[in-house]
Amino acid sequence: YISAAQQPKEDADRCSSGLGKFITTKCSSSGAIVESFSLCSYTCVRTIDNGQIVRNTYNFPNGLPCAQCKECCDGTCKSVHLDLKNPLSLKMSCST
Fold first, then answer.
1. Rounded to two decimals, what is the model's pTM?
2. Do 42 and 58 meet the contact criterion of CB atoms below 8 Å apart?
3. pLDDT exceeds cutoff 50 at 4
4. Looking at the DSSP assignment, which residues form a beta bridge with residue 81?
């Protein structure tokens, strides 16, 4: 479990080695910095010429594991839904 991000790059690296560098690079490519990281998304922030602050949130791919028996679904960590037939199969939570 990852608590509220005080150091988003480090929190992302605790989730998966190299993820912090990945999101930092993605943000910096648009002149932004990583403002926050959650299990299924991250937010970049930058200030434009007139002083306005611009935030962009990017979701991780749907179906990416985010916690025990959970997966990312449109930026939210949701429970996995199983189709309880034989053989056991996964129902994507984003498809329902």
1. 0.79
2. yes
3. no
4. 91
